[in-house]
Amino acid sequence: MTIRDMDGFYRLQGHFSGLEYGEHPIHIHLAKHCDNTIEIFNPLNETMRCPGSPYMIGHLHALVVGRNGRAVFQLDKLGQILHPFNISGRTVVIHDKLKFGAAVNRDDATGMIIGYPGKILSCAQIIVNCKPSC
User: Which of 10, 39, 117, 132 has its CA 20 to 30 A from that of 59?
Assistant: First the structure.
């Protein structure tokens, strides 16, 4: 994944392959290591309450994987909250394919997935390779 400055807003984008067809939750976690990815990056202290409510900044939209096992992810997020130096050293996690049920809901207003995301399929630490002015 890459993070690009778009005049004060930051674009996260990436290309993925080898995943099962369907929607996979993708999050930025607080942890600096992939063996401790319990808490989602949440600088505004929002809770996952119900559809239509504010959401955790690190709770990104679902990664939609095609039948060929590939996905392209692009998301323009809030300006300074997702500034590269605010998320540097944190981890980005792709979870197992969503299995809708009692614990998983979709917010119709935002498209966000609310509920338990499932096991970790992939995890990587976010490394920022630029000067503070990036």
Answer: 132
